[in-house]
Design a protein that fits this description.
Family: Belongs to the tetraspanin (TM4SF) family.
Strand content: under 5%
Number of domains: 2
Radius of gyration: 26 Å
Protein name: Tetraspanin
Subcellular location: Membrane
Membrane topology: Multi-pass membrane protein
Main location: membrane
Length: about 210
C-alpha cells in the first residue's frame, strides 16, 4: 500500500515538473520571439542611422539579436517537444542549444564590456566629423536626413553641443542663409529657425 502511494506521489511530481518545464520553454520561446522582433525593428526603424556610423557594428548587433532570438525560439520549441514526447534525442539537442546560447551570451557580454567605451568615443568623433563635413553636401542626402532625424528624435544639437556646427561646411556656406545651426536643431521647426542658437528654441543636449 505504501509503495503504491509512493509511486502515485512520484508520478504526480513528475507530471508537475513536466508542466513547469513546458511553461518555462514556452516563455523561453516567447522571449526569443521578442528578441528577434527587437532585432528586426532595429534594422527597419533605425536604418537611417547606418550612414552615420564609422563601422558596421550597429547592423551586426541587430543581426546578432535576430540570430540569438531565432536560436532561443528553436531551443524553446525543442524543449516543448522534449517534454511532450520524452525523446532523448530532443533532450540532447535542447541542452546543446542551451549551452550554445550560454556561450554566445558570455562572448557578447565580454565584447560589450571591452569595446563599449571605445565604440562610444569612436561614434562621437565620427559623428562630429560627419556632421561638419558631409551635412547638406551634394550626394550626401542620406547623411543629411539621418542627422536631421537623429537631432529631432533625441532632442539634441551637434555631437557635443550646438557649437559643433560653427565648423560645419554647410553653416559656413551661402546655402545656410546665415543659419548658425540646422533647422533640425530647433525645438519647434519653422523655416530658417536655425538663424539664432537661443536656448529657448535650440536643443542644448549632446547626441553622444
Amino acid at each position: 500500500m505504501s509503495q503504491h502511494y509512493k509511486d502515485e506521489q512520484d508520478d504526480w511530481i513528475t507530471v508537475c515538473l513536466k508542466y513547469l518545464l513546458f511553461v518555462f520553454n514556452f516563455l523561453f520561446w516567447v522571449g526569443g520571439a521578442a528578441v528577434m522582433a527587437v532585432g528586426i525593428w532595429t534594422l527597419i526603424d533605425k536604418s537611417d542611422y547606418l550612414s552615420l556610423l564609422a563601422s558596421s557594428t550597429f547592423a551586426v548587433s541587430a543581426y546578432i539579436l535576430i540570430f540569438a532570438g531565432g536560436l532561443v525560439m528553436i531551443t524553446g520549441f525543442l524543449g516543448c517537444c522534449a517534454v511532450i514526447r520524452e525523446q532523448r534525442s530532443c533532450l540532447s539537442m535542447y541542452f546543446s542549444c542551451l549551452l550554445l546560447i550560454f556561450l554566445i551570451e558570455l562572448v557578447a557580454g565580454l565584447l560589450a564590456y571591452v569595446y563599449y567605451q571605445r565604440l562610444s568615443d569612436e561614434l562621437k568623433q565620427h559623428l562630429k566629423q560627419t556632421m561638419t563635413e558631409n551635412y547638406a553636401q551634394p550626394g550626401k542626402d542620406l547623411i543629411t536626413h539621418a542627422v536631421d532625424r537623429l537631432q529631432q528624435d533625441f532632442k539634441c544639437c551637434g555631437s557635443n553641443n550646438a557649437s559643433d556646427w560653427q565648423y560645419s561646411v554647410y553653416i559656413n556656406s551661402q546655402e545656410a542663409e546665415n543659419r548658425v545651426v540646422p533647422d533640425s536643431c530647433c525645438k519647434t521647426i519653422t523655416p530658417r529657425c536655425g538663424l539664432r542658437a537661443h536656448p529657448s528654441n535650440i536643443y542644448k543636449v549632446e547626441v553622444g
